[in-house]
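Retry 2 of 3 after timeout on previous attempt. Resubmitting C-alpha cells to design endpoint.
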C-alpha cells in the first residue's frame, strides 16, 4: 500500500509512541469496516475498535468501541457530562476529523474532539483502531491511546 502516512501515523511518530501498522486490502462491498479489519488481519473482533463520531449536547465527540458492539449514546453523553447524544452526520464527522467514514481514527484528527474509550479496551495489552485510512489499522496500547487523545475511559459499548 503506497503512501501509508496519515495524520494519525504522523502523530504516533512525532510522539515516539510504540505502535505497529497493519494493512489489508479494503473490500468496498464489505458491510462492516471494523469486522472486515478483524477478519482480514485474523484478529479476535473484540480487540478491534471502531471510531464513531456523535453529537453530545450539540457538540461533536468521539466514541471508541469494539467492532462487535454498538455505541451506547446515553453512556457516551454521561461520560462527557452531557445530557443527550445522537450520531453525527457523516459529512460533519469527516469535516471535523479530516478522515473519511470507515477510516476515521481517534488519533491525529483535524479538530481535536473529546474522546471516550470503552472500558473493555483495558483488558488487552494492545488494541487495534483505524490509522486514518480504510485498510490501515494501528496496534497500540490502550494507555497510549488514552494519553494521546486525552480520552475518558467509560462503559460506552452495548
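Retry 2 succeeded. Sequence:
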Amino acid at each position: 500500500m503506497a503512501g501509508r502516512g496519515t495524520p494519525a501515523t504522523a502523530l504516533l511518530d512525532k510522539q515516539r509512541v510504540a505502535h505497529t501498522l497493519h494493512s489489508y486490502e479494503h473490500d468496498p462491498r464489505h458491510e462492516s469496516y471494523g469486522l472486515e479489519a478483524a477478519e482480514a488481519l485474523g484478529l479476535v473482533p473484540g480487540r478491534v475498535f471502531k471510531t464513531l463520531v456523535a453529537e453530545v449536547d450539540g457538540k461533536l465527540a468521539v466514541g471508541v468501541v469494539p467492532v462487535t458492539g454498538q455505541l451506547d449514546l446515553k453512556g457516551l453523553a454521561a461520560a462527557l457530562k452531557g445530557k443527550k447524544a445522537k450520531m453525527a452526520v457523516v459529512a460533519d464527522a469527516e469535516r471535523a476529523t479530516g478522515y473519511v467514514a470507515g477510516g476515521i481514527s481517534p488519533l491525529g484528527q483535524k479538530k481535536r474532539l473529546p474522546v471516550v474509550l470503552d472500558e473493555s479496551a483495558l483488558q488487552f495489552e494492545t488494541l487495534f483502531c483505524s490509522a486514518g485510512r480504510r485498510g490501515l489499522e494501528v496496534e497500540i496500547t490502550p494507555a497510549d491511546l488514552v494519553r494521546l487523545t486525552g480520552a475518558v475511559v467509560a462503559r460506552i459499548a452495548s
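Attempt log closed. Residues 7-154 form a domain with the YbaK protein fold (CATH 3.90.960.10).
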